[in-house]
Amino acid sequence: MTGQTAETVYRIRALNDAFRKNWTLGRVFLSAGISGLDEEARVNVLSAVIVFDQFTPDNDPFGEHDCAIVAIDGLRALWKIDYYDKDLRFHSEDPADPGKTTRVMTIMFPDEY
């Protein structure tokens, strides 16, 4: 944890999991590399992000479920969720409060990070 209470981390994790499964709860951006994949490969990568649930202390050290790498059909893609204020100008002051936070997920190849 990053100095946050267990309850706060749990709330952030639940919000991140909900967003990863329902992209209408935030904003999603695809990198040039992911966008450039053929439709089948792109759909496979995006689907892998939605169903990902293999969080471990190694890939999720803060317990927020905010970042991971998925491997599908020989491709490795990185997805990362960032927390912004409602105007998308600054980082959110409270990522556990959806009234103060817009979640933004970027899906990219690791070398595009």
UniProtKB/TrEMBL annotation:
InterPro entries: DUF3768 (IPR022243). It comes from the Bacteria. This is DUF3768 domain-containing protein. It comes from Microbaculum marinum.
